[in-house]
UniProtKB/TrEMBL annotation:
<dbReference type="GO" id="GO:0006909">
    <property type="term" value="P:phagocytosis"/>
</dbReference>
<dbReference type="Pfam" id="PF07686">
    <property type="entry name" value="V-set"/>
</dbReference>
<dbReference type="InterPro" id="IPR050831">
    <property type="entry name" value="CEA_cell_adhesion"/>
</dbReference>
<keyword id="KW-0732">Signal</keyword>
<comment type="similarity">
    <text>Belongs to the immunoglobulin superfamily. CEA family.</text>
</comment>
<dbReference type="InterPro" id="IPR013783">
    <property type="entry name" value="Ig-like_fold"/>
</dbReference>
<dbReference type="InterPro" id="IPR036179">
    <property type="entry name" value="Ig-like_dom_sf"/>
</dbReference>
<keyword id="KW-0325">Glycoprotein</keyword>
<protein>
    <submittedName>
        <fullName>CEA cell adhesion molecule 4</fullName>
    </submittedName>
</protein>
<feature type="domain" description="Immunoglobulin V-set">
    <location>
        <begin position="42"/>
        <end position="140"/>
    </location>
</feature>
<keyword id="KW-0393">Immunoglobulin domain</keyword>
<dbReference type="InterPro" id="IPR013106">
    <property type="entry name" value="Ig_V-set"/>
</dbReference>
<feature type="signal peptide">
    <location>
        <begin position="1"/>
        <end position="34"/>
    </location>
</feature>
Amino acid sequence: MELASARLLRGQIPWRGLLLTASLLTYWSPLTTAQVTVDAVPPNVVEENSVLLLAHNMPQEFQVFYWYKGTTPNLDSEIARYIRSDNVHQTGPAYSGRETIYSNGSLFFQNVTKKDEGAYTLTVIDQQFNPIQTSVQFRVYRKYFSVTSGSWVHTQNCQS
């Protein structure tokens, strides 16, 4: 029987040290989490209808999240934010009054216009203050009355 403090012979592996190291690395490494994504539901919407920017895989714990118009977040393009610790929704300069922000990370638009078409960015600040950012876009089709068919028609560029 060999003592634990006995000197290792050449070629022997220090199993206890390896097991301890592997255990610590497993404990210390962060768990891989699914990436935050957003879907536009529906991705193509007719003017005066609604669209939901539905967030998926939000972190269980986060500080705050922001919604911006466009792919480059800045103060002027902020639509709204949700501050988790206070359970507070705040609107930004790009807020039109037709958006509703939800605590699950989603953003709802009602009565969309052609000006709403384009990209939107969700930025989540997690518990360690790391930013997580993802973007989504949707298209808005114009609605017009067709004299020849006698009904409402929708198209992107007002041509049937």
